[in-house]
Each structure stands twice: as C-alpha cells, then as structure tokens.
Amino acid sequence: MAEFSLPDxxxxxxxxxxxxxxxxxxxGQRQVYAGSIATVKxxxxxxxxxxxxxxxxxxxxxxxxxGGSMRCALLGDNLALKGSxxxxxxxxxxxxxxxxxxLAGIDIGVHALAANPMRSVKRDTGLVDVPLHFAGxxxxxxxxLYADRNGLAVAPLDLLL
Length: 161
Description:
Elements: H1 6-13, E1 18-19, E2 25-26, E3 33-41, H2 47-53, E4 61-65, E5 73-75, H3 77-85, E6 90-97, H4 100-103, E7 109-115, E8 127-128, E9 132-134, E10 137-139, E11 144-148, E12 151-155
Parallel strand pairs: 3-4, 4-6, 5-6, 6-7
Antiparallel strand pairs: 1-12, 2-7, 3-8, 3-11, 9-10, 11-12
C-alpha cells in the first residue's frame, strides 16, 4: 500500500472524496489503510462477515452496515485474524467490535462505533455486495476507502495510483 495522509488527499481531491462523519474508533493494529470496498449489510448477525473474511481479501476493505446496533459485536479477534491472514486491509463497522485488546495486535485496520462484549447471533441473514449508506456517505462495492488517524473517506477511484 502506498503511503498517504488523509488531509493531503482531501486537499488534493476534495471534489471526489466523501468524508465520513466523525465518531469511529480505530481498534486494529493498522492505523493507516486503504482499499477497494466490499460490503455486507446485516443486523446483529455476523455470519456473512465471517464468510467474507474467510475469502481472499486482495487488499480490500470490508464495509459492514450493522445498522448502528450497540447490542452486540459484529467482529472480534477470531474474525479479525482470519481477515488479516486472508489479505484484507481493513474492516469498517457501523456497529460494535469486541476483544479490543487483542484487535490492537492484529495486522488489520478496524474502525467501529464502540466495543461491546456480546457476540452476535448466527442466522446467515443479510446481504453481500450491495450499496450502503451511513455516516453521511454512500459505499458502493469497488469504490475505495481511505483511513488514517484523521478519519475515513471514500472515493470512486483509487487516488493512490
């Protein structure tokens, strides 16, 4: 991955970048990451998150719309490790994570709203590779997400080429 600064990307590409509303917390070891977007839409069921992270990530970022639920976590240490081992650059969750002290040592970017120790249910419900909308931004599979300590942003193309 090329080095970048999100403020510099915003300065140079403001016409194509959509910046997420503040409020996401970084939990993973990677503080700076970027990649093509893959999506999952689910509610309190992380079955499809697990399924996606078991597949080759090829440097992509999995964006998960958990509806902002604060009742359970959609990602923990086991899934984050699976994602790291399978080449995912990061995971953005509109919801919660758990095992935060372990996530901090796994080589993957993780952003979420909060931590919650409760695990999700497993019903194999949800949608994969659909457009999502949260935090004031549209997420379309194949677009690019950029994350660093300054925040998160989405662009329709790879700005690091």
